[in-house]
Specification:
With 138 residues, the chain is an all-alpha fold. The chain has four helices and no strands. Helix content is 80%, strand content 0%. Helix 2 crosses helix 4.
Length: 138
């Protein structure tokens, strides 16, 4: 019984470490594509706080999917998307006060944020499916 629990814990930890690697690599590829036209020596420096939040998000999504509480996932994801939509509408209001290139850059960053969240949501739900399978949750 204890060996089975340890094995399940190792599988779950491995899954979330692999998910972090997948999201980081996907976002790096998208970021490199975005920087193609910019300075070649400019690199993306991942924010450790953002990466930690992504891991917590995947844990939240997986946990609540495994517990069949999908409405909480929708609520949490909705809050995250809504905050970006609000800031995007703020950008559109400030068009006269900012350079058009700066506005485009902010829009691209918002899109990368949303893409990262969609990838995280998908991997979190997959993690929930794995947890439900491992713990035999109906």
């Amino acid at each position: 019984m204890i060996l089975n629990s340890i094995l399940i814990a190792i599988i779950i930890i491995f899954y979330f470490v692999a998910c972090h690697y997948i999201v980081q690599k996907a976002m790096d590829k998208l970021w490199i594509h975005k920087l193609k036209d910019e300075e070649e020596d400019k690199e993306r420096t991942p924010n450790k706080f953002t990466a930690t939040l992504g891991i917590i998000d995947r844990l939240i999504y997986a946990t609540f999917f495994a517990l069949c509480r999908i409405e909480i996932i929708g609520f949490w994801f909705g809050i995250k998307v809504a905050t970006r939509l609000i800031t995007s509408s703020d950008i559109k209001r400030k068009v006269g006060t900012k350079d058009k290139d700066e506005i485009a850059e902010e829009g691209e960053r918002k899109n990368l944020y949303l893409i990262g969240n969609i990838i995280t949501l998908g991997l979190g739900i997959l993690g929930g499916i794995i947890i439900r399978f491992l713990f035999n949750i109906q």
